[in-house]
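Quick check before the chapter quiz. The format below is the same one you will see on the exam, so make sure you can read both the input and the output lines.
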Amino acid sequence: MTKFLKFGAVGIFNTLITIGSFTLFVYLGINYLIANVIAYGLGTVNSFFWNKNWVFQEKSGTLILFLKFVVVNLITLGFNTLSLFLLVDQLNIHSAGAQVISTFLGMFVNFFLNQKWTFNKKKPHHEL
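Here is the expected output.
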């Protein structure tokens, strides 16, 4: 439970980064889907640092961890972008509100994949 609460705290900060930059990019006239991808990328870089060092406290394998983290976040980005598209284009929800909903839903996908795959500290079978 502590990890999930820490993950949530990091997620709040990432959400502020993502939604803030998303709003700025849309205000500047960038298409909302492109703005979403750029904003999500900014949040992902911040998220990796804090999740690696504070939430999951992983000390080794930075390159492999980063690659796994990127894969998980690409999956989450796909889920987030699809959710955003459906909410905006199919349900006519304003893009800012839809972004908040999509980000919240994506948080659960992201936590599950990161805990089960990226930062999974299971010992190899020969060490059990």
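If your answer matched, good. The first helix runs from residue 2 to 27.
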